[in-house]
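pls ignore typos typing on phone
adenosine-5'-diphosphate + seq
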Amino acid sequence: MKRIGVLTSGGDAPGMNAAIRAVVRTGINKGWEVIGIQHGYSGLVNNDVTLMGARDVSGIIQQGGTILGSSRCPEFETEQGRRKALRTLEEQAIEALVVIGGNGSQTGAHALYQMGFPVVGVASTIDNDLCGSEITIGVDTALDVALQAIDQLKVTASSHHRAFIVEVMGRDCGYLALVTGITGGAEYIVIPEFETDAEDVVNAIRTAYERGKAHALIVVAEGAKYNARGLEHYLSEHHEALGFDLRITTLGYVQRGGSPGAFDRLLATRLGAAATGYIAEGKFGVLAGLNKGQITPTPLSEVVTGKKPLDLDLLRLSETLNL
Ligand code: ADP
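k done
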């Protein structure tokens, strides 16, 4: 092995830079050249690559986002697009590729592996919806950013005796909402994995009001039927039943932009190092992930076909706490 490539793809996540740094430096330590592919799969399709030295990844471990850039590249989803990507890999004499990203990106990595190219994935998405890693790069920091916003909203909500609904990201997965809700002290949590009625939300706010609470917090997942938009109309028609005055906030992309905390920096560093370790061992078509405290390889074929279960005991726990 002389030359490997690395790319970041799909939704950016805090800690991607720490993973790039780990891949570049552990690769150089093994005596390889490391090629950075720009803007995810679109850099592969369009031959947009740069040689990366140890100094090119200096001072990035604390930065959110990704210095390589990321993108969504529909062309790569076609066989013709992937053939172009394979041509780039051949022209650049890249012998193995590390793909840092979430579900879509690992599906792309698996497709490339099935076409015969040696690929290793690194589990990175704030949504925590990727099989093969109990927690993925960026989740912990995204949770902290959401919590910081919620803690601040609570201060103003208490002063004005308000209820507030906060929508957090997570695509179709309720993990971010569930954990933000529990750790933010929410009265009620709405996630896609558990059916909720808009009326349940009204009841939760009303109950908090009748218990004499200074405010009520409802955390909703963007992928739930009753997300911020889904609730807006119903709640405006039932505002008198709430007791509280109501505000709705969507946190949106701020959750991606935080500086990675210690957990994400360490996880990204360990996963990036594991990826080059697997390449050195000739172990391809796997995802480097964290399971039971250990970094483990899971076949991409399992990663892309599985559905990660959500621990609904946490939802029940949250219900016992909001007295
Ligand atoms: P994430 O990795 O964060 O889940 P996306 O779902 O947007 O992000 O996927 C990122 C990119 O991965 C897509 O733009 C596309 O280039 C590639 N990709 C997604 N699905 C497939 C697929 N079925 N086959 C090949 N490539 C795919």
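The pocket of adenosine-5'-diphosphate is lined by residues 9-11, 41, 72-73, 76-77, 101-105, 107-108, 111, 125 (CB under 6 Å). The first helix runs from residue 16 to 29. more later
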